[in-house]
Amino acid sequence: MAVELGGVLWGQSKNLRFQPTAKRIRATVGGDVVADTTRALLVWEPRRVVPSYAVPADDLSAELVPAAGADGEQAPEHRLASGSRDGPQRVLSRGHFRTHTAAGDELTVRAAGGDREAAAFRLADPDLEGYVELDFAPFDQWLEEDEPIISHPRDPFHRIDVRRSSRSVVVEHHGTVLAESSRPHLLFETHLPTRSYLPREDVRFDLLVPGDTRTACAYKGETTAYWAVEDGGHMLDVAWTYEHPLPDAAEIAGLVAFFDERVDVVLDGVRRPRPVTPWSVR
User: Fold this and answer.
1) Which of 50, 105, 115, 243 to pair with 16, CA 20 to 30 A apart?
2) In which domain, by residue range, is 244 found?
3) What global pTM score does this model have?
């Protein structure tokens, strides 16, 4: 019987998972390297879709002490994209690091540059003995080899592909056309809806309001602008751009993408259902 590999990976999401990496991984606090290892693991706690790095405690130059105020918070549930192999699955897309879904002990990283409260987690699993999982945000910088990374560790089973296309794309909000193009760049990203990145000339900026939102993606980089529309008495972010994307996404520089979850997209004359993801309007 044939097996769809994506379904196999999704089927493991309820479990604690790990994957070794050959990369040298470093993390800094106050300019000092507090983690430096060539033995790192990527770790996904149950129902997590974004990995964390776990490093051998022996490769930390900081002290680990019990964290104060551990509250045993229960992980909230979010839906990921509809159209996954077995229908929508309940997963934790990002969430607070202290919202753990596996057994273990919260630890504070005590370094010369300052304490990072509850930034480490010693998982109670014999296969991960000697390792501590590290939160990404509390550390000042992360390096894979000599390259800085942003947002979170990259998943080796997650990728993006950008392809030029001549397919017709129309973006509407409550019947009003916000953009129309026959020259999109389509960005295909694992487990996420296909995003249409459109030339600025094909976007109705007179119908959009610049916003203050800024986000970061481990694969695409940091956004440089967001735009919103009025929706039910409040402003709703619907579009964004990367002026200086990371090398893997260089083709989308300066192009504008829309949340398929928040607008209506007509692709080649076919109106697509709005996908359900962590970016859906609730």
Assistant:
1) 115
2) 160-271
3) 0.86
